[in-house]
Model the fold of this input.
Amino acid sequence: MKRATAHGSLMGEGVPDALSLEGRAPHVLALHGFGGTPQEVALVVDVARELGLGAEAPLLPGHGLRVSDLAPLRFQDWLDSAEDSYLRLAKRGKVVVAGLSLGAVLALTLAAQHPHTTLGVVALANAVWLQSPWPSWGLKVVERLRLPDFWMAKAGPDIADREQKVRHLTYNAQPVRAAVSLLRAGERLIPQLHKVQAPALVIHGQHDAVCPVSNAWRLAVRLGSLQKRIVILPQSRHIITRDIDRDLLRKELVAFLAAF
Done:
């Protein structure tokens, strides 16, 4: 279904519904990115299905309808919601947490806070650090000048695959204050990354314009995990789950999750 393109709405195709899949443990919690929908992590859920694992990809608060719903929310709102899903799955066994961009920051935070129930962590295009000068420096200037909240129009998602770029379901604008909260959440997470003890798969697009490819190594070196694998997708940009190298990404996810 093609979406309307009025300012402050969803653009792209499809529906923003949460995804849920029955299966064996460990269960996989897959978390989408800022302004996105569970479609962004549908590939993770599909791999879980292939392996017979249970999986859940919730729609984070403020997402899936209007940008005005997202604007007043902050990182803690998304974390509280993600943790509710995590704890529900953890009652049924160990959990593998996976996330894209904002979702990766959430996944890493949950893995650091719940080391005994986290069996693995997958960080896709992690947003622990944002690209400079934009959006990183720009968001810092907005915060320092105490500017009123406003929305930045978005021409389209950061995807190299032209067909997927048009079809990808996401907001067509970004509320700046909510984005600042993600920036600061990444900074707060950095000194906590050593608490992530579970095996980690870190994957990033070589041409990511939102979160620099250097994030992959900057993250991996700080993780407390003894087992960690870094994969750089040579043709992909930020939304790596929908981009040119998605088949390679699928193979990496299959290998990682099959080990459990």
Residues 10-258 form a domain with the Rossmann fold fold (CATH 3.40.50.1820).
